[in-house]
Amino acid sequence: MSFNWIKITERAREGIKIINSINHDVFCTVLDYVHKNMSPEEEDHDERENALEELEKLVGVPRPDFLLLIKTLSYILKRTSTFVIKPTKLQSELREKLKLNNDKVDVIIKLWIKNTKPILDNLQIDTNKGGNDLCDIAWKLKVQISSHCQQKEKTSLAVLQLRTTNGVPVDLEMNHEELVSLYNQLEFIQNELDLLRSKER
């Protein structure tokens, strides 16, 4: 089954055009900034604002375009972090559905693999040790405050912690849309399991 993992609006299309227009080195710098600020650590507010202003100068586009660039890239990264799919499939989606240039796709894929591998390693079954099973799920809610060029935004997040038998928890942060998407995927899996169970009887 193919999941509709991302919705691309006309506004997002404009943001993607801006992404494709900047050179490789500048894009890598912007991507690094956006990725680090998806889950920002405690840091000086002025320092973050200064970093954003320097980044805007580096990109060299009008402020509305710059803000759209940051917003679009942040949205893409958040959506890719919600789904675990084959790298080749994600690569194809970024190229064909989002119409990102090949050099931009390659950089995003490398970052995605780097971030996804620890999660997959924690969830991977180790047959020599009898498996790594999910033993408990904890959750909490939090509000994340972000600031982009004097524009402050509050985002409500759900934090899920998957506790496994190997003692290494897996933490997942999701907004409302991402949580609903996860729920729909789990519901689909449950329906498939129910169907298989009915055939076994």
TrEMBL record:
Residues 133-197 form the COMM domain. Coiled coil: none annotated. Pfam families: COMM_domain, COMM_HN. This is Putative hcarg protein. It comes from Tabanus bromius.
